[in-house]
TrEMBL record, chain A:
Pfam families: E1_dh. Its main location: mitochondrion. This is 3-methyl-2-oxobutanoate dehydrogenase (2-methylpropanoyl-transferring). It is found in: Mitochondrion matrix. GO terms for biological process: branched-chain amino acid catabolic process. InterPro entries: Alpha-ketoacid_DH_E1_comp (IPR050771), DH_E1 (IPR001017), THDP-binding (IPR029061).
TrEMBL record, chain B:
It is an enzyme of class 1 (oxidoreductase). GO terms for biological process: pyruvate decarboxylation to acetyl-CoA. This is Pyruvate dehydrogenase E1 component subunit beta. Its cofactor is thiamine diphosphate. Residues 44-219 form the Transketolase-like pyrimidine-binding domain. PANTHER family: DEHYDROGENASE RELATED, PYRUVATE DEHYDROGENASE E1 COMPONENT SUBUNIT BETA, MITOCHONDRIAL. It holds the Pfam family Transketolase_C. The pyruvate dehydrogenase complex catalyzes the overall conversion of pyruvate to acetyl-CoA and CO2. The pyruvate dehydrogenase complex catalyzes the overall conversion of pyruvate to acetyl-CoA and CO(2). It contains multiple copies of three enzymatic components: pyruvate dehydrogenase (E1), dihydrolipoamide acetyltransferase (E2) and lipoamide dehydrogenase (E3). InterPro entries: PDHB_mito-type, THDP-binding, Transketo_C/PFOR_II, Transketolase-like_Pyr-bd, Transketolase_C.
Length: 477, 377
């Protein structure tokens, strides 16, 4: 009956003879009831070329192309559509037509910003106030980080250390996020966050010691440069594999939750790190376990030579937070005040509501990936220079503190020369300090040194004694 | 619920044999307690031994917690964690989503901050998806952080071949994990081993890989009162001489210990007295006990289920060559699984795994009752 009706209506509308089979096929595709107010439908099952997606083509149903995201209401919707289905996972409203979520949103997620390019607070902005003391310490540390990076990079180029990795362009992220945390908050870094350590009190000498792998290095010379770690400052030792720190962070946060401590975990990673399986597992788990952790993504546009366009097709990292049921925010990573405010708020939410938060800071990696990379090979020099100068987070923030009357040119040059002097001094000292002793080769493999390693050490010492010429003279036995 | 286990254990339906065995092993709660015999000797299944060890350690230290797939509501894929969710609650027994890499990383992170997780892998075959976290995040961290970060974590689960589960569910990982400095690797055989070694592993400040065996879970062993005591603990790094002998040393671990003991029985009827060493600890290997035994018997047969190349037997042989070469009266014989991915068909599987007869023949070769393998090369 319906079939006959459909066929007759369709034939009448189109003025075209269609066979019974065609009519049957069409009636199965969608329930036909074209209303007279609508334009003449076509017999094809594809929308007419030139139809804008979402436009009415056939009756009052949408065409089978990509539709705007779910949530946009449709006028004249059939009231039968407001029914609810019960499935594992909860209730869902069903609709009787197919709607695909668009692969890209109409508008990208907005970015939170407080200071404009001239270092002026944007009118109507809301941010977490900082005292003059904190504001100046932030600036101080941002400059120190920048100078430290420059000098250590040069030291590597001179062959004095084997490797280095800079955070140029990401000073605001480093320092401002650290400033918004307390010393009790646990930090699990990737490797481009030495500023957090700096904020917490790691000295330039301690940085240098690690890079030179000398006796005073807290890592006992076991790791490559920039793999800093400090128990005291609650900064977990840098580990090279990408994104492994993310599930660690979720686990450490779980531990904090069990302790009911007034502290959270923060973990940093780049845009590239979001491709790792560990990213998925960590965010998913953290949301399910409801643990106090801040996932801080430094989206600096590049993963060595891979630009974000080749890394993912999503709207950055922030959009994924919602997919995991996690509250998230996107901030201007070169705006120190915005980063400070966002992390401050995230921390409060993480601790008081015991939930994970995702913060995506948009920024630019001004330096090469590391001393093993020459980024001019895959990106234009003028782009790098633009971000180094016009979009520099430090000069922008400096304008703000100058406007507040807290800074001037004289103090600027004083600070920079002071830091530079200290650094060169630290390098000279670190270079001359002895390397770690031979016994440090065998300790810490296990909690207590096992017998086989005690034997090996003994036999190694005997060999060194027997053949002193084969053994470097500056390494203590 | 079995549907979930089904997905992990085999792609299609669980072979009837396994299902039958599994159903037989799902016993009512009452039998968790060891049965008493009139002569006073108690017997305990390996499964019960592991369960009681977990229970006692969780009770003693509130930092100890379990995580893994199906460990909670399902009572454990092999029922090792039965009753623990009910007793300790969801904060201490975590049912994880299916991501070995994820939950291993999370466990390691929790251990970094001072908790003592016990991470269960449904089988160690799946641990390969998490092996970066086991090696790079757990094993090496105390060293790389120069003692600042310790990782008191235990990774446990069934290892090696079960019955009819094919290549991706049958590999032995003893050699893989024992290769890595920073890890301790244990493999129990009896109920006593299971209890004592698991307790030692949980109490140990270093990361421990604890390799169980699915087919041993249902086997019962006599246990003394000392073993049943909650403070019972076995030292890590000490092997046990299961059977003393004079003519040939046979080393084995896990299920192969049972096979070695059977082989020793057969050999004794032919006048060969075999000394069977249950390694218990793969890393650190008890080289002292092994070498002392070889110095006594002068002949060695190593037995393991895993693939031959770079296996545990190769390391034991080298240790003996390094320390007791002059004492060897015959080349060292090595019995291992076949150098092929484990086939599924029952007849092929039987041929791919060491059998008691293989051990008997190897011991005879070592005793010059027949020509040694090395001599035929």
């Amino acid at each position: 009956m319906v079939l006959w009706l459909a066929r007759s209506r369709l034939s009448h509308q189109f003025g075209v003879r269609i066979g019974a089979v065609d009519a049957l096929r069409r009636s199965l595709l969608w329930a036909p009831s074209p209303s007279p107010s609508n334009p003449t439908p076509t017999p094809s099952s594809h929308p007419r070329r030139g139809d804008r997606c979402g436009g009415r083509v056939f009756g009052d149903r949408r065409p089978l192309c990509s539709a705007p995201s779910v949530g946009s209401s449709d006028e004249g919707e059939d009231p039968r559509d407001n029914r609810v289905l019960d499935f594992p996972g909860g209730k869902v409203t069903f609709i009787a037509e197919m709607r695909f979520l668009s692969e890209s949103p109409v508008e990208r997620v907005n970015c939170y910003r407080v200071l404009d390019d001239d270092g002026q607070t944007i009118s109507g902005c809301k941010f977490q106030e900082v005292s003059k003391e904190v504001a100046l310490k932030m600036y101080n540390d941002m400059v120190t980080l920048q100078v430290m990076d420059t000098i250590f990079y040069e030291a590597q180029r001179q062959g004095r250390i084997s490797f280095y990795l800079t955070s140029i362009g990401e000073e605001a992220i480093n320092i401002a996020s650290a400033a918004a945390l307390s010393l009790d908050d646990i930090v699990l870094p990737q490797y481009r966050e030495p500023g957090v350590l700096l904020w917490r009190g790691f000295t330039l000498q301690e940085f240098a010691n690690q890079c030179f792998g000398n006796k005073s290095d807290y890592g006992k010379g076991r790791q490559m440069p920039i793999h800093y770690g400090s128990n005291q400052l609650n900064y977990f030792t840098v580990s090279s594999p990408i994104a492994t720190q993310l599930p660690h962070a979720a686990g450490a946060a779980y531990s904090l939750k069990m302790e009911k401590k007034n502290a959270c975990v923060i973990t940093y990673f780049g845009d590239g790190g979001t491709s790792e399986g560990d990213f998925h597992a960590a965010l998913n788990f953290a949301a399910v376990m409801e643990v106090p952790v801040i996932f801080f993504c430094r989206n600096n546009g590049w993963a060595i030579s891979t630009p974000t366009t080749e890394q993912f097709r999503s709207d950055g990292a922030v959009i994924r937070g919602q997919a995991y049921g996690m509250r998230s925010i996107r901030v201007d990573g070169n705006d120190a005040l915005a980063v400070y405010s966002a992390v401050h708020a995230a921390r409060e939410m993480a601790i008081s509501e015991c939930r994970p938060i995702l913060v995506e800071a948009l920024t630019y990696r001004v330096g090469h990936h590391s001393t093993s990379d020459d980024s001019t090979k895959y990106r234009p020099i003028h782009e790098i220079e633009h971000w180094r100068t016009a979009r520099d987070p430090i000069s922008r923030y400096r304008k703000w503190i100058e406007r507040n009357g807290w800074w001037c040119d004289a103090t600027e040059s004083e600070l920079r020369s002071q830091v530079r002097k200290e650094l060169l001094q630290a390098i000279q000292v670190a270079e001359r300090v002895e390397k770690p002793p031979l016994s440090d080769l065998f300790t810490d493999v296990y909690d207590r040194v096992p017998s086989n390693l005690i034997e090996q050490e003994k036999s190694l010492r005997e060999t060194v004694k027997k053949h002193p010429g084969d053994y470097p003279p500056d390494v203590p036995v | 619920m079995l549907g979930v286990a089904r997905r992990k254990i085999a792609c299609e339906s669980i072979p009837a044999a396994i299902l039958g065995q599994a159903l037989q092993r799902i016993r009512p709660l009452g039998s968790i307690l060891p049965r008493n015999y009139s002569n006073g000797a108690k017997e305990m299944m390996v499964r019960e031994a592991l369960n009681s060890a977990l229970d006692e350690e969780m009770s003693a230290d509130p930092k100890v917690f379990l995580m893994g797939e199906e460990v909670g509501e399902y009572q454990g894929a092999y029922k090792i964690t039965k009753g623990l969710l009910e007793k300790y609650g969801p904060d201490r027994v975590l049912d994880t989503p299916i991501t070995e890499a994820g939950f291993t990383g999370i466990g390691v992170g929790a251990a970094y901050h001072g908790l003592r997780p016990i991470v269960e892998f449904m089988t160690f075959n799946f641990s390969m998806q998490a092996i970066d976290h086991i090696i790079n995040s757990a094993a090496k961290t105390n060293y790389m952080s120069a003692g600042q970060i310790s990782v008191p974590i235990v990774f446990r689960g069934p290892n090696g071949a079960a019955a009819g589960v094919g290549a991706q569910h049958s590999q032995c990982y003893a050699a893989w994990y024992a290769h890595v400095p920073g890890l301790k690797v244990l493999s129990p055989y009896s109920a006593e081993d299971a209890r004592g070694l698991l307790k030692a592993a949980i109490r140990d400040p270093d990361p421990v890989v604890f390799l169980e065996n699915e087919l041993l879970y249902g086997e019962s062993f006599p246990v003394s009162a000392e073993v049943l005591d909650s403070s019972f603990c076995l030292p890590i790094g000490k092997a046990k001489i299961e059977r003393e002998g004079k003519h040939v040393t046979i080393t084995a671990f896990s299920k192969m210990v049972g096979y070695a003991l059977k082989a020793a029985e057969i050999l004794s009827k032919e006048g060969i007295s075999a000394e069977v060493i249950n390694l218990r600890s793969i890393r650190p290997l008890d080289r002292a006990t092994i070498n002392a035994s070889v110095r006594k018997t002068n002949r060695l047969v190593t037995v393991e289920e895993g693939f031959p190349q770079h296996g545990v037997g190769a390391e034991i042989c080298m240790s003996v060559v390094e320390e007791s070469f002059e004492y060897l009266d015959a080349p060292v014989e090595r019995i291992s699984g076949a150098d092929v991915p484990m086939p599924y068909a029952a007849n092929l599987e039987r041929l791919a795994v060491p059998q008691v007869e293989d051990i008997v023949r190897a011991a005879k070769r070592a005793c010059y009752r027949s020509v040694p393998m090395a001599a035929t090369a």
